[in-house]
Amino acid sequence: MSGIPTQILEALASASSLPLLSSEAFPNIEPLNVRSALDSLSSREMVVYDTIEREEAELTDEGEGIVKEGSHEAKVYDAVCKSIEGLKISELAKVVGAASAKVGQGKAFKEGWIKKDGDRLVKSVPAIKDVTRDNLNIIKSTHAHPNATVLADLKKRKLVVTVKRISFKINKGPKFATQVIKEETDLTADMLYSGEWKTKSFKPYNFKALGAPAITGALHPLMKVRHEFRQIFFEMGFEEMPTNRFVESGFWNFDTLFVPQQHPARDLQDTFYISDPPLADRPRDDATGEPLTEYWDNVREVHENGKYGSLGYRYPWKEEESLRLVLRTHTTAISANMLHKLAKNPVAAKYFSIDRVFRNETVDATHLAEFHQVEGVIADYSLTLGDLIGFMQTFFAKMGVHDLRFKPAYNPYTEPSMEIFGYHSGLGKWVEIGNSGMFRPEMLEAMGLPKGMRVHGWGLSLERPTMIRYGVSNIRELLGHKVDLGFVKTNAAVRF
Q1: In what order do the strands lie in the sheet with 349-358?
Q2: What is the C-alpha to C-alpha distance for residues 407 and 389, in angstroms, rounded to an integer?
Q3: 421 touches 429 (CB < 8 A)
Q4: How far apart are the C-alpha atoms of 374 and 211, rounded to whole Å?
Q5: Hey, is 16 helix, strand or coil?
Q6: Cβ neighbours of residue 25 under 8 Å, at least 6 residues apart?
Q7: Residue 185 CB neighbours (<10 A)
Q8: Do 354 and 293 meet the contact criterion of CB atoms below 8 Å apart?
């Protein structure tokens, strides 16, 4: 070993007194390099050391200039003194420089050194003492100043900055020597055979050293919350719906839900339409492949003329519009399909799904063009709106969200309808986290469900509860290209 470690050992050996201060013994060596050498020697127990951190005041370039030439205000005073009849204000910058004129004039007035006489500056006192220069000289020699107020003022004037200085107090260790003996890191078979191990010096094991971090995968916070949602649903007796169809026809996505074909939600600025192929086939039974002719006709009749006690929308319903392919705007399209299948055997049922949906939204702190929707339906006889509110309170309480508000709303396929709001402490406001309601009779009876059966339906964003749970205020930091991978790896599993 040579270089800085050797210099340290030799300095310790020749020092008249210990401990040794690195800033005095090695003033020209960077503290970082000294620390590296000390760590190496310390691991061999050849030295022991303590780190000393202190803040020192240091002059800026402007401060150094004042030490050499005088302060701005002193320059202005000297220039005024040299002008017998006073110095014209307009000529001050030419005499002392623009910087000194700008700063020095005000300071000289403040100190009472000069005054105005018409358009000229004249001196007010016979002599001055350049206090600023004197204070900077003190700081330059001692790297400090006894008066904290003076030091703060010089910092404010950007004549002085505070820098952190690191030095080390070094002493001899238990195994101190002026030469470093190479330490072996492995006990080999040859050493054992020859007996060399008896005279070798071995590097001690450091059992406190941290191992290399394991490179592993990590569940995204959304997936952690999704898992907890699923567990809550299963605990409450729900069955998961299949959600493998990202592309739906307008029939399942809109028409079965009693959304009129002129509704703004079906406009290009709200929905992503598929260009190739542009149209789907008429709906078929998933099990048999038979066309759902009766259901198709019922939906058409409800829209055009009304049925099952409804007046309908009274417009010419178009088959082509119903068969247009879209990226599903909600998983309620899946719920409609499942309820249609339930009509074959109309018994009490609970269904849920959690998957991605797509909407042509303007991206901001709480909206994305694609997000995850938590969808659920409860079908049973004699259900009421009070049952739905009670269920929502129980459901969200299991997630630890107790601050809920319900607001009347309008949905084409539910009546009555409610928006659900939860309080986001990070944003400091109430945030909409879901929509809910009771499916309309003309939607359910068109499927073949009996008149007495009622269905609660709700759609909840997965992102909003996740943001509340993990304290995220911008949804773009949760999903998309701005996600911090460190955030994904270090956040604990959520427990509601």
Answers
A1: 239-240, 349-358, 370-381, 453-461, 429-439, 414-424, 404-411
A2: 11
A3: no
A4: 41
A5: coil
A6: 11, 15, 170
A7: 8
A8: no
CB-count burial class (<10 Å; 0-12, 13-18, 19+) for 201: exposed
d(CA 476, CA 483): 7
80, two tokens: 């005024």
Question: How distant, in Å, are the alpha carbons of 27, 142, 164, 199, 325 from that of 57?
Answer: 17, 8, 9, 52, 71
Q: State the sign of the Cα–Cα–Cα–Cα dihedral 284, 259, 373, 441.
A: negative
- Helices marked H in 257-345: 293-304, 319-322, 332-342
DSSP letters, 155-222, are: HHTTSEEEEEEEEEEEEE-TT--SSPPPPBS---HHHHHHTGGGT--BPPP-TTSPPPPP------HH
pLDDT at 171: 92
- Cis before 283 (ω within 30): no
Q: What is the mean pLDDT of residues 113-123?
A: 87
Nearest to 27, CA basis, from 57, 54, 7, 6:
7
pLDDT at 1 (0 to 100): 45
Tokens of 306: 């009304």
Location of structure tokens 């309080």: 423
User: Looking at the whole model, is its pTM more than 0.90?
Assistant: no
Nearest CA to 39 out of 49, 30, 31 is that of 49
Looking at residue 326, what is its pLDDT?
Answer: 92
Report the distance separating Cα 288 and Cα 75, nearest Å.
99
The pair of structure tokens assigned to 413 is: 């396929």
Q: What type of residue is 80?
A: V
Average pLDDT over residues 282-310: 90
For residue 331, give the DSSP letter.
T
CB 447 within 8 A of CB 339: yes
Residue given tokens 């080390």 in the structure block: 168
Are 470 and 400 in contact by the 8 Å Cβ rule? The answer is no
End-to-end Cα distance, the chain: 58
Taking alpha carbons only, the member of 59, 64, 93, 62 closest to residue 76 is 93
Q: What is the DSSP string of 373-424?
A: EEEEEEEEET--HHHHHHHHHHHHHTTT---EEEEEEEETTEEEEEEEEEEE
